[in-house]
């Protein structure tokens, strides 16, 4: 029999590296191997434990309460604040929306007011829970327009949202004004601090200018903060904090309407592995308050250095000065952003392309961690080489016939034949001998094709693509 661990290592060899500070999306690297060791051992020790029943696994309950207590101290929570450990930022956001909806059973058609830059998880929540998402355009600085958001609140509004910071641009919304407008109408205000929650408090202590956004702001009723991001904990944990227990109560689910045990859940999950909880608790205990202060200093130093690299390169610009650890860059007409992304990936730096949205052209996103700081000079060299190569290659053009093909498709009725026709027309993606989907090694042409599609068509194409990927080989 083949050794499954050997096969596992072989499979993982094709993945992006999670250490080394060069993967600037999806993972968050402290740069400290000892933190990783502590996390691995804690996860392994609790991999079979189940947080479904806190009376059966009281150690997990204690760890959850201690994590919430640590976060409450970070985020200026008042006495009586409560929180829940979830599986990630999306679940925290889903629960914030579900709880807001269920707190207002009198509202038949619930709505939530979002800046256009709010995370897509809020749209997922709208889809799942039947809460209408009311999108409000942001200002030229990419921050929410507080006055416009206040005007959008009506009698059916159950939640108003702000970001600290927004994912796409890395800036903090004017939470003070937004929360005040929500409070004046008796509406909940949620701050999505999944990215900034474990960074911005330390940034303020270091002396960085940080706009108010925590529970110190009157009217903020809940905050989501991801521990598997800048707390440098293992993947899958986040925290959803509420100003008081009454605000959290609608989030809970209980059912005795069957002959088994009475189901009682604080999250959307029932069974929850104790591994991520224990791994997160162990990492937070290991790093501690002063350790996070140092890691934040390192991450922000890396941000400053990367911004300087971008500003030094002709043809590049930072879209907006970052408030936290997220950097967004754009190119001028002499550089194709998707080709630049490919060139950086080819040199070992994974950055994330962002497609055009509204009147804003495509951009490139970087999530910078403490582990990136020792490698900034390597990034600077790779960026210069990539800019030169992208400029020499020239812009990516989508064939007019492919554009016409895309425009003729109905995203609501996209089927397998349509998808196959697009693959054939574009010549970008082919099928292997065994019928599996194959991607090109460079993605610029794929991203350029998606960029000319409408948002609805992008969604339909990517759903079709995911459906095709997730089919077993028989």
From TrEMBL:
Pfam families: Pyridoxal_deC (PF00282)
Species for this entry: Nocardioides zhouii
Protein name: Aspartate aminotransferase family protein
Keywords: Aminotransferase, Lyase, Pyridoxal phosphate, Transferase
SUPFAM superfamilies, per database record: PLP-dependent transferases
Superkingdom assignment: Bacteria
Cofactor(s) essential for the protein: pyridoxal 5'-phosphate
The keyword Amino-acid biosynthesis appears for this protein: no
Annotated Gene3D superfamilies: Aspartate Aminotransferase, domain 1, Type I PLP-dependent aspartate aminotransferase-like (Major domain)
GO MF terms held by the record: aromatic-L-amino-acid decarboxylase activity; pyridoxal phosphate binding; transaminase activity
GO annotation terms (biological process): carboxylic acid metabolic process
Chain positions with N6-(pyridoxal phosphate)lysine modification: 229
Family: Belongs to the group II decarboxylase family. Sphingosine-1-phosphate lyase subfamily.
